[in-house]
Amino acid sequence: MTEDANPDACVVLVLGVGNAMKGDDGVGPHVAALLSGQPILVDSSLTSTVQSIDCGTTPENYTAVVRRLRPGLLVIVDAAEMGLQAGECRIIPPDRAGALGLSTHSMPLSLFVSYVRDLASKIVLVGVQPRSMVFGEGLSPEATAACELLVEVMSQGRTGELPVLD
Predict the structure, then answer these.
(1) CB 3.0 to 4.6 Å from 71: which of 11, 102, 155, 165, for a disulfide?
(2) Domain boundaries along the sequence of the chain
């Protein structure tokens, strides 16, 4: 079967990771909610409908979904302490994921990514620099703007144009 004939090649799965009750830690779930069911440009001639999941703080509970879908693109969105200005977004290389303060979940995302690595054609981990992750606060204006930017960028198939964390 050629790559073009693979029906799963156009599946785009977005996993939003974080606690929506802890301020900017909710960026992942917010992006997942905004993208749910939205059309997304995969390449210049192919569009797909995004499948998105709010994983909360337990992305490991959704490995069966990743295994079943075998997405062409798996995007994981999470708050990440990267030493940047609040709301800045970066693609986090897998080898850097373990060294960053990523959200408040139970399994390190570096371990999760290594576990699902063979289940998706491409995996992109997107971090958003939080301003505050205080329980009971909503998203900061910077995080809200970052979520809107990510939805626009992903919908246009430009996820790969996000800057990579140095």
Answers:
(1) 11
(2) 3-161
SS3 36: coil
Tens place of pLDDT per residue across the chain (166 aa): 334 434 445 789 999 999 999 999 999 999 999 998 888 877 666 778 789 999 999 998 999 999 999 998 999 999 999 999 999 999 998 777 765 545 455 667 777 888 888 999 999 999 999 999 999 889 999 999 999 999 999 988 888 899 999 8
Instruction: Give long-range contacts, CB 8 A cutoff, 24+ apart: 92-96.
Output: 92/125, 92/126, 92/127, 92/164, 92/165, 93/125, 93/164, 93/165, 94/123, 94/125, 96/165
Q: Beta-carbon neighbour count of residue 77 at 10 Å?
A: 30
Contact 133, 17 (CB under 8 A): no
Give the amino acid at 128. Answer: V
CATH superfamily of 3-161: HybD-like (3.40.50.1450)
Rounded-to-integer distance, Cα 118 and Cα 111, Å? 13
- Reference 75, options 46, 99, 108, 42; nearest CA is 42
